[in-house]
Amino acid sequence: MEVFNSLSNPTRIGPPNPDRSSFPFLLTLQKKKKMSTLFHIKSPPVRSFQFPHSLHTQNPKHSLSYTTNNTPIKMTSFHRPNALPSLQGTVSEAIALIQSSPPTWQSALLSNVVIFVLGSPILVSGLSLSGIGVAFLLGTLTWRAFGPSGFLLVATYFVIGTAVTKVKMAQKEAQGVAEKRKGRRGPGSVIGSSAAGCVCAFMSIYGVGGEAFSQLWQLGFVASFCTKLSDTVSSEIGKAYGKITYLVTTLKVVPRGTEGAVSVEGTLAGILASIILAFVGCLMGKIDALQAVICVIASQIANLGESIIGAALQEKDGFRWLNNDAVNVINISMGSILAVLIQQAVLKN
């Protein structure tokens, strides 16, 4: 087979003296750099030709063409890699990263991206867009500090809290006691609800206090969310179903939704919510049974303190800065600190 290069002297490739009658075609190999190689075999024209494997080029920049009956027909040969094994490998690496123990910042970030994308319909029902952004940071921090079990605890808090906020929303709106944006929490609310938990998470990540304090940071984390969930549920159920609401400082009957007001229905619902979340924390291995009881007790003491602050100081003259988000930070901080102090007192005895 003779090869005539348009820019060089003729050369020969393939077996010597090939049987030219077995190659009935005019073949042209074209390259991008305006170079062509001509395979010219004198034989009668045919309609089709099956290229042997040895003639395929492994360079995707090359194209292969031939003519039949003086009509040029161009064919391009590409050796495409199989994408399926590559995709499977990427997925396997991602799963391995998510399952890494102890968690890393990379695994926490990837896990939250996946969860937030899949759970976006639920997230947009309970949070504003800016609230979702702050919640993403909280979720990443939680996963890094306490792993999937800690994240599940926060997710349980969010689902229950969002659900009770939607209870009898029309009635609450008519009475003027509903949360803004139909219960969709903004960034201030997310920060106010998670500040103490974030502090405990950072303490755990950086090993403050060493191994002896590791369990205390987990306890404080769980207690902070038990406190906040109890507060949210008692408030929302009280506004929806409370028959009589009392101002905690004077026990005078006041309208639903009054700052510092409590009701029997709301209080009982709040205690139940705290028990449920403490049980989830126990089930996930973050706390033991005794610590679960401590979380419930600490949450109720903190909520009582929050009601007193709300009735006596919130948004009063000289305390305009003490809005609902600031009171939330104080509330969950009290719950977290009380749980740690009670735990230490129990251990000493």
TrEMBL record:
Keywords in alphabetical order: Membrane, Transmembrane, Transmembrane helix
The protein's name: Protein VTE6, chloroplastic
Family annotation (InterPro entries): DUF92_TMEM19
Subcellular location: Membrane
Cellular component GO terms held in the UniProt record: chloroplast inner membrane
Pfam families linked to this entry: DUF92 (PF01940)
Record field: transmembrane: 113-139, 145-167, 188-209, 266-285
Topology in the lipid bilayer: Multi-pass membrane protein
Coiled-coil region list: none
Main subcellular localisation: membrane
Similarity-based family: Belongs to the TMEM19 family.
